[in-house]
Design brief:
- This protein is an alpha/beta fold.
- It has 2 domains: 5-98 and 293-326, 3-Layer(aba) Sandwich (Rossmann fold); 102-284, NAD(P)-binding Rossmann-like Domain (Rossmann fold, 3-Layer(aba) Sandwich).
- The chain is built from 13 helices and 12 strands.
- The strands form 2 sheets. The protein has a 7-stranded parallel beta sheet, with helices on both faces.
- Strand 9 (206-209), helix 10 and strand 10 form a beta-alpha-beta unit.
C-alpha cells in the first residue's frame, strides 16, 4: 500500500523527520534552501501534507497548482505567510504552533528591551573598535528598566508574559493596548492598566510590540506614532516585520525622536532597511526570539503531531480552520 507523501520544506531535527517517516513517504530539504515559489510548487506535486516554517508562502495560486494538498502545518505561531481563507475554501487544514514558544520569546523580548535601554550593543561595538581609552561618568549612560513604565502593544500570550516579567521582576508600571481589553482579574494579576494606543505611546518608557501582522496592523507604528513617544523612550519589536515602519524608525533614531530601539523582525526579511545599520542606539537580531533548542524542538514536534493527526484520521491540536475538514 502506498503511503501518503509529505514535504518538509526546511531542514529540521533528524528525529522529527524519523517520526514522520514512520507514517509517510517524506521528502526533505537537507540543504535548507529557501525555494522560490515555482520550485516549492514543483516539490509539492503529489504531496498531501507539508511541514513549513515562516519562510514559505502558501497562497491561492500554490493551492490551485497542488490539488492533492490537504494539510499545511507550520512550526511558527505566526501565519501571515498562509492564506488561511484560501486553504479553507479548498479543504486544506492549517495548523500553527502557539503556546510552546511564549516564555522563550518573552525572555528574548525582555532581553532586547534591556539591551536597548542600557545601550549594550552600542557600547560593545565601541569596545570592539578599540575606542575605549578611559572611563567617563556619562559613558553610554542609558535608562533604567526597574521602576520604569512598560508599554505593551498587543496583550496576547507573549505580551502577558512580558508584562509579568516587568511587573513582578522589575517593579515596572505596566500599561497596555489591545483590541480587546483583558478581564479585570487578569489585569490585576499582571498589574496592567489598559490605555488607548495614543496614551500608551505617550506614557511608555519602554514600548514592546507583540501584535500579529495583518493588513490592519501594517505600519501600526510609523512616524506619527513615534512622534508621540518620550525622547528618552525605547521601542522593541518582536512581533512581525511591517508592524513598524522601519524607514520611519531609522529616521526617528537619527533625529533623536526616541532614544533607542531593538528589532528582531523586519519588513521584507531577510532583507531589511539598511538605514537601520547607521542609526544610533539600535539593537538588531535576525528573527531569533524563539531560538532556544528546547523551544524550537517543541515547535517542530507540535507541527509534526498536527501533520500526523491530520493525515492518519486523528484530531490536530492547534487547527486554525478545523471547518476545512468538512470540505
Amino acid at each position: 500500500m502506498t503511503r501518503p507523501a509529505v514535504l518538509v520544506s526546511r531542514r529540521v531535527f533528524d528525529d522529527i523527520v524519523d517520526r514522520l517517516r514512520q507514517h509517510f513517504d517524506v521528502t526533505t530539504n537537507p540543504d535548507d534552501t529557501v525555494w522560490p515559489q515555482a520550485e516549492l510548487i514543483a516539490r509539492l506535486q503529489g504531496k498531501v501534507g507539508v511541514f513549513i516554517t515562516g519562510s514559505e508562502k502558501i497562497d491561492a495560486a500554490l493551492l490551485d497548482a497542488c490539488p492533492d494538498l490537504r494539510a499545511v502545518c507550520t512550526m511558527a505561531v505566526g501565519y501571515n505567510n498562509i492564506d488561511v481563507a484560501a486553504c479553507t475554501a479548498r479543504g486544506v487544514v492549517v495548523t500553527n504552533a502557539p503556546d510552546v514558544l511564549t516564555e522563550t520569546t518573552a525572555d528574548f523580548g525582555f532581553a532586547l528591551m534591556m539591551a536597548a535601554a542600557r545601550r549594550i550593543a552600542e557600547s560593545e561595538h565601541f569596545l570592539r573598535r578599540g575606542e575605549w581609552n578611559k572611563w567617563s561618568v556619562d559613558m553610554f549612560a542609558g535608562s533604567d528598566v526597574h521602576g520604569a513604565t512598560l508599554g505593551v502593544l498587543g496583550m496576547g500570550r507573549i505580551g502577558q508574559a512580558i508584562a509579568r516579567r516587568g511587573a513582578l521582576g522589575f517593579g515596572m508600571q505596566v500599561v497596555y493596548h489591545n483590541r480587546s481589553r483583558l478581564p479585570a482579574d487578569i489585569e490585576a494579576t499582571l498589574g496592567a492598566r489598559w490605555v488607548s494606543k495614543e496614551e500608551l505611546l505617550r506614557q511608555a518608557d519602554h514600548l514592546v510590540i507583540v501584535v500579529p501582522y495583518s493588513a490592519a496592523s501594517h505600519h501600526l507604528v510609523g512616524a506619527a506614532e513615534l512622534a508621540l513617544m518620550k525622547p528618552g523612550a525605547t521601542l522593541t519589536n518582536i512581533a512581525r516585520g511591517g508592524v513598524v515602519d522601519d524607514a520611519a524608525l531609522a529616521r526617528a533614531l537619527k533625529d533623536r525622536v526616541i532614544a533607542a530601539a531593538a528589532l528582531d523582525v523586519f519588513e521584507g526579511e531577510p532583507q531589511f532597511n539598511r538605514d537601520l545599520l547607521d542609526a544610533p542606539s539600535v539593537v538588531l537580531t535576525p528573527h531569533i526570539a524563539s531560538a532556544s533548542i528546547p523551544t524550537r524542538r517543541a515547535m517542530a514536534n507540535l507541527a509534526t503531531d498536527n501533520l500526523i493527526a491530520l493525515l492518519t484520521g486523528g484530531e490536530p491540536k492547534t487547527a486554525l480552520n478545523p471547518e476545512a475538514r468538512k470540505r
